[in-house]
Amino acid sequence: MLKVEPIPAFQDNYIWAIHDGRSVAVVDPGDAAPVLAYLERKGLQLGAILITHHHGDHQGGVAQLLASHPLGPDGRSLPVAGPATEKIGHRTQAVAQGDTVTLAHPALTLRVLEVPGHTAGHIAYTGSLDGLGPVLFCGDTLFASGCGRLFEGTAAQMLRSLDQFAALPDDTRVYCAHEYTASNVRFARAVEPRNNALARWQDKVAELRAAGQPTLPTTIGHEREVNPFLRSRLPQVRQALAGRMPADADDAAAFAALRAWKDEFR
Q1: 3-class DSSP state for residue 222?
Q2: Among 136, 198, 244, 250, which has the highest number of CB atoms less than 10 A from its own CB?
Q3: DSSP reduced 3-state for 47
Q4: pLDDT tens per residue across span 121-147
């Protein structure tokens, strides 16, 4: 049975650790120090590294991790998978839409989705983990009740990327890379003040954060209920955008207006 655990990093990052009790694959290790401390504390051996995009807070720790753990549990060079179209240091496997990443330590297979928007070549990893069911490691494309900023891609690209996520099973566990949920929920409530599921979620988020607990993972089904960026086509969301876009704006323009609103929201 596999487990997924968060390794907090920087101010609000999560590096996700997928382990079987012996070896671990880490997703987006922007900082090596907390990963090395985690390995020592848990008595685990590093088996693989998965990267979703090129930003330093997602791959900045790779070099130090490889220096400390150059070989995996099988005595071979540690595999490092990352997006084919982005500059990823020490990458050993360049992956794109539809590719699979098959690891021996821990034993798992994940499918790659290309999800441009936050960066031009951003990818995500999805599959089914023994004991957990369907999972999604989405980097900075999808957040709990939010989505990533459009640094390199377009609103149309991000909308298509999120549509890929929305098509996944409702029970897919979503492992986002940042703890942005409280601020995202405040914005979501401004967009949909009458969303009862969102009101309940805001209370739960406050409870979790007050206890020092992460708000992740979320699920795809939950995000369909509370995330305005997965709900941008709904009439109530379009109505909330009145005055921020033309009345006849298409789906991509509506999404762009929603993202622009979030960018300026305080």
Answers
A1: helix
A2: 136
A3: strand
A4: 999 999 999 989 999 999 999 999 999
What is the model's pLDDT at position 266? 87
**57 among known catalytic residues:** yes
DSSP H/E element including 259: helix 251-264
Residue 130 catalytic?
no
164-196 per-position pLDDT tens digit: 999 999 999 999 999 999 999 999 999 999 999
CB 126 within 8 A of CB 114: no
Active site residue 54: no
- DSSP line for 87-118: --TT-SEEE-TT-EEEEETTEEEEEEEE--SS
CB neighbour burial string for 108-145, b if at least 16 within 10 angstroms, e if fewer: bebebbbbbbbbbbbbbbbbebeeeebbbbbbbbbbbb
Which residue out of 19, 53, 54, 105 is catalytically annotated? Answer: 53
Q: Among candidates 174, 198, 170, which has minimal Cα distance to 184? A: 198
118 is catalytic: yes
User: Cα(101)–Cα(137) distance, rounded to whole angstroms?
Assistant: 13
The predicted structure's pLDDT at residue 230: 98
Residues in Cβ contact with 170 at an 8 Å cutoff, skipping those fewer than 6 apart? 219, 220, 221, 224
Q: Is 19 a catalytic residue?
A: no
